[in-house]
Amino acid sequence: PNTQYELLRRRIGSNTQEFWYFISTELQNLRNQFGDIAPDMRQSIDHILSLGAEHKTSLIHDVKELAESDGYSTWRELEANDLSNIVQSRLKYIQNPPDCKSAKKLVCNLNKGCGYGCQLHHVVYCFMVAYGTERTLILKSKGWRYNKGGWDSIFQPISDTCTDIAGESGSNWPGTKDTQVITLPIIDSISPRPPYLPLSVPEDLAPRLIRLHGDPIVWWVGQFLKYLLRPQEKTSAFLQEAMSNIGFKRPIVGVHVRRTDKVGTEAAFHSIDEYMHAVNEYYDQLELKQPVEKRRVYLATDDPKVIQEAYSKYPHYEILADTTISKSAAVSTRYSESSLNGIIVDIHMLSMSDYLVCTFSSQVCRVAYEIMQNYYPDASDKFRSLDDIYYYGGQNPHNRVAVLAHDGHNYGELSMQPGDLIGVAGNHWNGYSKGKNLRTKQIGLYPSFKVKDKVEIAKFPAYSDVGN
Ligand code: GDP
After folding, report:
1. What's the mean per-residue pLDDT of the chain?
2. 302: CA distance to ligand 1 center in Å?
3. Which of 265, 272, 302 for mutating ligand 1's site (highest number of atoms within 8 Å of CB)?
4. Ramachandran class of 413: left when φ > 0, alpha when ψ lies in -120 to 50, beta otherwise
5. Which residue owns the Cα nearest ligand 1 atom 9?
6. Alpha-carbon distance 256 to 121, whole Å?
7. Nearest CA, atom 10, ligand 1
8. pLDDT tens, 32-73?
9. DSSP letters along 398-457, please?
10. First-to-last C-alpha distance (Å) of the chain
11. Is 75 exposed, middle or buried (0-12, 13-18, 19+ CB in 10 A)?
12. Three-state secondary structure call for residue 277
């Protein structure tokens, strides 16, 4: 297919959703405002809302059908495989230099002082810089807070030939081209910032990625996780066992409810009902395609009370959860050795689910979403976030490009001309996003459908020796 066709197909799908976010929110506002004084009006608004939802579901169904009947499904599968093979063989290549004594190395310390998801993102960032500088990544992980034995106790070593940190010369980032061993700080303090940081994808793969995938950076991050998270045999057996104990079965929606230390500090509280509302919308959609016997959910959370609440409030749903591992509410256990199995199981199940409902403010859910990209040619639309849009901690500014003009001055909205760059802060999931017009410096809300994402592209090494 040509790129324009793929972009349009995805855009029709996501803007149908945006259209409905807008109309349904506005109607609900009208109902709340006038429903009490005009009961007739309340009734007709409710009718519009319910039939409107059917309209939307039907339209989205048709766009999904289009992707299955346009004859390009096989191409999408092959293209995704091919691109993944290219990246995986390049990662294998830099990680396995023939002579470790002379190899250029980049050292990364796994023990960033944060949770499991945050640490995985830290390693991915290090790996991206290693890829960008053609260095072998050396992971320091002894004494890891989640497993004293280190990374290799859980996952396969990231190199078969080169794990020795030693070298003739060494320095902190940036060093020079000739420094043999360079040590990286955390992404928040790296200076100077190399061009290889998210949200950039490599120029040599970009045209193919833009055609294949709705959010190339998520795919790109997923490739690093694919390499990193190759499980040790016993990890793999443990995950298999957990899946069968829990009774993991499709269709299934992965729900992640992050509470405890996150709420009120880095994220707002969201009730279980908000998550289940999104679960229902997913299943209403699926039912146009196939009968659904039971609405099944995999529920992951750091707060065991949430699981009890879900069981009692939603008895008609099949709610699967990992209750075998005790999840104490104490922060000290959440960031300690006893919590590793729990979080590994939860992230695995979430990533294996057909759809994710969560808060993207949590790195747990973002990691699951990134890993999920490895199971489909394009899983960029298989989520509903109750708060943030997708981002990568420490990323460079996220820009969008206006494709339609907007005159917002009568409504206090952001005005824009086609071609304007809009720095995006977030989506309010009501038809509007918040952003800054980089030309006019104005900050405000704008209709989400009037922009398109700008894919950031950077020059990375070509890896022409790897034979792709
Ligand atoms: P964030 O703080 O949510 O952005 O994600 P982090 O992964 O950086 O830190 C949160 C930590 O809390 C995780 O690493 C887990 O140890 C724990 N946690 C959060 N959510 C869950 C969950 O759904 N299941 C389990 N088992 N642990 C969780």
Report:
1. 96
2. 6
3. 302
4. beta
5. 115
6. 18
7. 115
8. 999 889 999 999 999 999 999 999 999 999 999 999 999 999
9. -EEEE-S-B--TTTTPPPB-TT-EEEEEEE-SSSEEEEEETTT--EEEEEGGGEEEPPEE
10. 22
11. middle
12. helix
- Render pLDDT for 436-461 as a digit per residue (tens, 0 to 9): 999 999 999 999 999 999 999 999 99
Nearest to 45 by CA among 33, 57, 55: 33
Lowest mean pLDDT segment, chosen from 219-223, 275-279, 321-325, 412-416: 321-325
> Model pTM greater than 0.90?
yes
395 Cα–ligand 1 center, Å: 21
* Confidence bin at 287 (pLDDT 50/70/90): very high
Pair 213, 201: CB distance under 8 Å? no
DSSP bridge partners of 136: 105
pLDDT digits (tens, 9 = 90+) for 209-233: 999 999 999 999 999 999 999 999 9
Any idea which residue has 């309209």 for tokens? 55
> What residue owns the CA closest to ligand 1's atom 3?
362
- Mark out the alpha helices in 289-353 (DSSP H runs): 304-313, 331-334, 340-352
Whether 467 shows a pLDDT value over 80: the answer reads: no
Query: What angle in degrees, to the nearest 10, is found between the helix axes of 116-133 and 73-95?
Result: 80
Within 8 A by CB and 6+ apart from 134, the residues are 94, 104, 461
Q: Which residues line ligand 1 (CB under 6 A)?
A: 114-118, 256, 258, 262, 300-302, 327, 334, 339, 342-343, 346, 362-364
**Among 47, 23, 49, 44, which residue's Cα sits nearest to residue 34?**
44
Nearest atom of ligand 1 to the alpha carbon of 261? 2
Task: Measure the CA–CA gap between 190 and 360, rounded to whole angstroms.
Answer: 24
